[in-house]
Design brief:
With 294 residues, this protein is mainly alpha-helical. The chain contains eleven helices and six strands. The strands form two sheets. It has a three-stranded antiparallel sheet. Its main location: nucleus.
């Protein structure tokens, strides 16, 4: 099976084709109440598992945070399944709305309801909607491409992670379904290429590609000692009193305490401040969404 980046990004362009007019002329109330001020699809979205209202603005903010974290992180971060599902659904709905407006279906409905159709001078909001939608697609594409580049780079590391029974995170949580397919196909092609080109001509004891017992680790792992810039956000749910890791420093400000292994020193990370730290030191705080990479 041949899988490339176009297969994973195809979902972003599925709903940009022409809309069937027979579905529009039914006078659905869910379409007529929308106008050119809609940001990304419907403003009402319910998470199927938790039934928590999530606004489009919050989804966009979470996407930008995930995008920045992924680009600045040396490792592959967990895939935000629910966030991406909502965003792709909003993109589909907004694309359909823009298509309806551009083809004049909403103008026809306004005329039938004794309302004047939209004049040509008022098409500017439509252009703004299209521009904003393309900006959102660009961020999602950049986010996915960044993840795919890490999947290519750490292919053997991900295979080892998947086979490790003591791993704290599963591959299904770390990758999306399409990314898992891409990873499996890419790793098989790469292993076959290396075996046919090099390994089969070498002695059997030298054919292992995942040897970690020698002086050089053959598995390319993320650089855990990489320095990163972080912004300390605090508890993501806003429940400051329920966070067991949150403390107060000598100035009475809330902070997190981390330990630098090399120096065996503790450092206080004050809420709202910016620091430069090794990634390994703040990795757990990043996973808990208590700090953000910048």
């Amino acid at each position: 099976m041949d899988i490339n980046i176009d297969d994973i990004l195809a979902e972003l362009d599925k709903e940009t084709t022409a809309v069937d007019s027979t579905k529009i002329t039914q006078g659905s109330s869910s379409t007529t109440h929308r106008d050119a001020n809609t940001i990304v699809g419907s403003s009402l979205d319910l998470n199927d598992k938790t039934q928590i209202y999530v606004s489009p603005q919050q989804d966009f903010s979470d996407l930008m945070k995930s995008w920045k974290n992924e680009r600045c992180s040396p490792e592959l971060l967990p895939y935000p399944h629910q966030l991406m599902k909502r965003l792709l659904n909003r993109i589909s709905m907004q694309s359909q709305l823009i298509e309806n407006i551009s083809m004049g279906f909403l103008d026809m409905q306004n005329a039938s309801n004794a309302n004047p159709p939209m004049p040509n001078e008022s098409k500017l909001p439509l252009l703004c909607m299209e521009t904003e939608l393309e900006r959102l697609k660009f961020v999602i594409r950049s986010y996915i491409r960044c993840r795919l580049s890490k999947i290519d780079k750490f292919s053997l590391y991900l295979r080892q992670l998947n086979e490790d029974e003591n791993s704290l995170i599963s591959l299904t949580d770390l990758l999306s379904k399409d990314e898992i397919k891409y990873h499996d196909t890419h790793s098989l092609i790469w292993l076959k290429l290396v075996n046919d080109s090099i390994l089969k001509y070498m002695p059997e004891e030298l054919q292992a590609i995942n040897d970690t017992e020698g002086s050089v680790n053959m598995i390319d792992e993320p650089d855990w000692n990489k320095f990163v810039f972080i912004h300390v956000n605090g508890p993501p749910d806003g429940k400051w009193n329920e966070d067991p890791l949150l403390q107060e420093n000598e100035f009475g400000k809330p902070c997190y305490t981390v330990t630098i292994p090399d120096l065996k020193e503790e450092v206080e990370l004050t809420i709202g401040s910016i620091y430069v730290m090794r990634y390994e030191v703040i990795r757990d705080l990043l996973r808990d969404d208590k700090v953000a990479l910048i």
